[in-house]
Specification:
Elements: H1 11-29, H2 31-36, H3 39-69, H4 76-107, H5 112-161, H6 167-180, H7 186-205, E1 211-212, H8 213-231, E2 235-240, E3 249-250, H9 254-265, E4 274-281, E5 285-291, H10 306-316, E6 322-325, E7 329-335
Parallel strand pairs: 2-4
Antiparallel strand pairs: 1-3, 4-5, 5-7, 6-7
Helix pairs in contact: 1-3, 3-4, 3-5, 4-5, 5-10, 6-7, 7-8, 8-9
Length: 342
């Protein structure tokens, strides 16, 4: 679906601001004529209003253009810098054109320098007003998104740990259990170590909005190790990920949730092995897909579902989580993020 182009809802500002600024500039230049209420003053008001309209509308277009290119709250510095450069160029070109087509032919004098200085004043005022309003609105939106994302993350962690023992108690119990396991029983030691890794990651990542894909993959590997002890070769996982994509970011536990759901809702047996593929796509998406062999009786759910992942990503990016299902395969695509979100 094509995104709606950015627009400014500033009709009232322009209807009031343009004639008002034209009047103020005329008063600054021709105060004596104003006191006389001469015809020259009213011509000056008309001319300065026309110029204000030209500068306002041109710079307004620059503002819209830059906000389409740099829409994010974090891109404020880049947007303002680009606007400043383009605004100076635009004001100079309009002033130069006016000087060449009007003042030099009519009055045989160049007013380029003073005209530029006078014109830059309303331009700065317009930009200050527009950017102040936009920055404040973007700041409020960013605060709302951050608060909503925190709520989603907290809910995710509560769902993951619901109906389970306190993780800190489990760590202490695991340490005690490790001491009781015979040193020669390496399989049990390995299992316990991977189980500790799983709970450690849940604790470490619960206050983060994003994590490196490489960290999430390491966590998923530990989670898969625990499940492969149960399912052995009946659970088959293939990863097709480059080193570059491992440095991208995703929401914590999202990949593990998708793998867990695949295991939970499908038969995993010698006759029907579960095949999970984790791969990257060129459009900066991480794909998790599995063959479908649904259980007739589903295991008890921890209520960690796709909706939680969809909700969290909607607060981080405009790119959507994509969910596809056909008769043979279930596929979920989650966006990869180039930067961490605090």
């Amino acid at each position: 679906m094509k995104e709606k182009a950015y627009t400014l809802n500033d009709k009232k500002w322009r209807m009031i601001g343009i004639p008002l600024m034209g009047l103020v500039i005329a008063l600054m230049i021709n105060l004596d004529e104003f006191l006389k209420l001469s015809r020259l003053f009213f011509l000056s008001v008309f001319f300065s209003t026309l110029l204000t309209l030209t500068f306002w509308e041109g710079n307004r277009y620059i503002i819209i253009w830059m906000r389409r290119i740099f829409p994010e709250y974090s891109q404020t510095g880049k947007r303002i810098a680009a606007e400043a450069v383009l605004a100076v160029i635009y004001v100079f070109l309009v002033t130069l054109l006016l000087d060449e087509l009007y003042y030099k032919p009519v009055y045989h004098v160049s007013v380029l320098a003073i005209g530029f200085r006078v014109s830059i004043v309303p331009t700065v005022i317009v930009y200050l007003v527009y950017e102040a309003v936009y920055f404040f609105d973007a700041w409020k939106m960013n605060v709302r998104k951050t608060e909503a994302l925190m709520r989603e993350n907290v809910q995710s962690q509560l769902d993951v740990l619901k109906n389970q023992l306190d993780p800190h108690f489990l760590f202490n119990s695991m340490n005690t259990l490790a001491a009781l396991i015979d040193d020669e029983n390496t399989a049990a030691q390995d299992y316990l170590e991977r189980l500790s890794d799983v709970y450690r990651y849940v604790l470490v990542s619960r206050n983060k909005n994003t994590v490196l894909l490489s960290e999430e993959i390491a966590f998923v590997d530990a989670y898969l190790y625990l499940n492969k002890i149960r399912f052995r070769e009946n659970l088959q996982v293939e990863k097709r990920l480059s080193n570059a994509v491992m440095m991208q970011y995703i929401t914590p536990l999202s990949l593990q949730m998708l793998v867990e759901n695949a295991i939970k809702h499908n038969v995993v047996s010698r006759e029907n092995p579960l095949q999970i593929v984790i791969r990257e796509e060129t459009d900066a998406y991480l794909v998790v897909e599995n063959n479908i062999s649904e259980k007739t009786i589903l295991e008890k759910s921890t209520r960690v579902g796709l909706q939680n992942i969809v909700n969290r990503y909607s607060l981080l990016t405009d790119r959507k989580v994509q969910i596809d299902r056909d008769e043979e395969r279930f596929t979920v695509k989650i966006p990869l993020l180039a930067q961490a979100v605090e």
